[in-house]
Amino acid sequence: MNLLRRLTIRSQISIIACLIALVVMAILSASYLQMAKMIGSNNEKLTSDLVLQMRQTVHSNKDVLERLMMNIAFNMDVQNFLIEPDKTESFMLSKRVDNLFINSRTLKEGILDIVIHGEDGRWIDIAGGRGLTKPYRGALTEGKFFHYYGLQNFGRHYELENVFLIGSKIKYSQPGELFNDTIGTLFFVVSPQALLGEISDLSAEMNTISFFVDWQRKVVSGNESLHTVDGLELLGVGRDGSIKREVEWEGETYIAHSEYLPDMKSAIVSMIPKDAIMRDMNAIRIFFIVMFLIGGFVMMLLFRAITGNILHPLKKLINFMSTVKRGDLAKLKGRIDLDGYVEISLMATEFNNMLNKIDSLTRELLDTHAALYGAELEKKKAELAYLRSQIHPHFLYNTLEMIKGMAAVKGAQEIREAASSLGSIFRYSIKGESVVPFQTELGVVESYLQIQRLRFGSRLNVQMEIDENCLNCHVPKMILQPIVENAVYHGLEPKEERGVLRIESYLDERRDLIVVVEDDGIGMDAIRLERLQAALSEEDYRTRLGGEERHSIGFANVNARIKMICGPDYGLQVASKEGGGTLVRVKLSTKGELLHAI
């Protein structure tokens, strides 16, 4: 590499030109090999497609023949003929069956004979095949509707040396004692073309050699003689599935593909000479060599012009890069524009893209630093606010303890009780776990109500209906006191008469904790209730509560906490009527994994 750096640009370009020539040669060679592989693959696919087409032809013809056989086997005239005891009626039925055979024969070309043998010896045929097919009745097995006997030699009875024989049992299909009993046997005698089509024509069109061989290794149809085919050992005829491999035959190598047809116990064989596959590759090879020589000559002619055109843009690029390297901020904003070959233009474009990327990353870095600095400021503010929130409750709690002591000394029992209850609430709010037993939460509510009893006296009547099964359920701390406070402050306090506050708890059918806080205070009008319910449905309650609804922020706060901890199916439901009181229903999950996740 160091030696290459010390060479002139012209020498380096010469080396690059040689490397390009080698690369082009490698590409041409790889292309030639790939094309040879593709041609071989296409020819192999040709044989596979031919086998597939032949197989489809066989299956299509087989389906037609089988449908015709089923139509005859289940025909009422045929079945009645085979069991009719009355000779006169049987004769009339035989005429109708004979017409049915003739009509069926016209539906498919190549049907040479249709024969029916009854279990009691009666029979019908249309071409004299009764005696020829009778020995094959015993070969039919239960469980298979159609039986293929392969290629059969019936002499010259049907003017063909070899024909196909297909058999089927006839089952009685009418209700009664004979239902599903075998009442006869049906045979179709067909020519090879009726089942196989013109395999020779297909092979000639595709320049291949094709055979159709039955289970007795007889050639059913093809364009080669019997003794020639025997030399191939039929490529695995009698096995399941398909076989594809090279075979040697008569001094040549062939790519052969055979497909086994289990229903017919036969196989389709298609072959193509391997030399034919590569026949066109010599012309392609010569074409590639000529193109390489012409391309090399053209490259030599263009070398001088290309070398001169490259040097000037390279020098310009180097000078610009040197300017950027010196760190001149004014130059960093500039961009280079090079006129030259694709490689030079690409280098200039990529270098400009790099400068654009540097500018973009620099701006992103500055924005990120600013965002991190702002986040750090917010973090410090939050820490300071947290410290203040800890200082204020502790200060208030200590002050309440001092008032409690002074009230005890002065004998002011009510002030002492109020200070004690308020101190318990403060202590509960700033200490302990975020999840507490429901019984503990009720204790805080009781402390709050004790203060309100001192304030309202007989005007406040508190009724509590607590299910004992709820006491050990864990709930988020300070979830109930804001609701009770709202009922007292906004519902009962404006009421001049004596008010009732009812607190009820129970477990519903899903074992969720239900707490009901109900008062008979002044209630809310429809507009105010609608605003409150809309606020409870919002994820951010502060976006929905206006100035006149600030006293309901406790509701929205509690509702938001419950939904964040327990899920969207939990929270508060509020019902109220102006002058008719307010009912708040709280639904909490008792699943421990939800509550302890906070």
Task: Give a written overview of the molecule.
By secondary structure, this protein is an alpha+beta fold. Among the domains are: 74-196, Beta-Lactamase (2-Layer Sandwich); 441-595, Heat Shock Protein 90, CATH 3.30.565. The chain is built from 18 helices and 17 strands. The protein has helices at 2-6, 9-73, 76-83, 87-107, 130-133, 192-196, 199-205, 226-230, 274-277, 281-325, 329-332, 342-410, 413-430, 438-456, 481-492, 526-537, 553-566, 592-595, and strands spanning 111-118, 123-125, 147-152, 163-171, 182-190, 209-213, 219-222, 242-249, 252-261, 266-273, 435-437, 460-466, 474-476, 499-507, 513-519, 571-576, 582-588. It has a five-stranded antiparallel beta sheet with strand order 2-1-5-4-3. Strands 7-6-10-9-8 form a five-stranded antiparallel beta sheet. It has a five-stranded mixed beta sheet with strand order 12-14-15-17-16. β1 (111-118) and β2 form a beta hairpin. The protein is flat, with a radius of gyration of 50 Å. The model is unreliable at 222-228, 384-392 and 541-548 (pLDDT under 50). It is a multi-pass membrane protein. It comes from Cohnella phaseoli. This is Two-component system sensor histidine kinase YesM. It is found in: Cell membrane.
